[in-house]
Structure formats: C-alpha cells, structure tokens
Design brief:
The protein is mainly α. Helix content is about 90%, strand content about 0%.
C-alpha cells in the first residue's frame, strides 16, 4: 500500500497535477493537429477538382458562344447593306 500511496501523493501534488494536465492538453493538441491536417488535405483536393470542373465548363461555354462573337458588328453591317440595297 505504501507504494500506491506514494504514487497517489505524487500525482495529487501540484507538480503532478500540472504534469497530468499538460499531458492531456498535448494529446488533445496533437489530435486536433492531425484532424486539421486531414481536413486541409481533403479540402485542397476537392478544390482542385472543382477548379478543373469549372475550367471544363468555361471551355464548353466559350465554344458555344463563339458564333455570337462580333454579332453587334454583323448587325450594323447588315443594316448598312439593307440601306444600300433599298437606295
């Protein structure tokens, strides 16, 4: 019993309590750091996928709108040609 009593007294002393508290906080800090690292990796990976998807969507939309580029100039030219025809 005397050995257990000595261990108990050491753990319940101010230095022992601080050591136990420090160990618990260190374990919590390490667990949170691992969690943040895993979340960071997951988020950056999904961001890259999202960016790639957006770039593909942009390329598709640019191909679809290519015939409409310069439409305002074409309309103005057509009006001029119509006026010349009627004149």
């Amino acid at each position: 019993m005397s050995r257990f009593t000595a261990i108990r007294e050491r753990l319940l002393s101010p230095v022992g309590m601080h050591s136990v508290g420090f160990a618990v906080l260190m374990i919590a800090a390490i667990a949170l750091a691992v969690r943040v690292g895993l979340d960071w990796r997951e988020t950056s990976g999904s961001n890259m996928d999202a960016v790639a998807g957006r770039r593909a969507e942009l390329a598709t939309l640019q191909l679809q709108t290519a015939p409409l580029r310069g439409l305002d100039k074409k309309v103005a030219l057509s009006r001029q040609q119509i006026d010349e025809f009627y004149a």
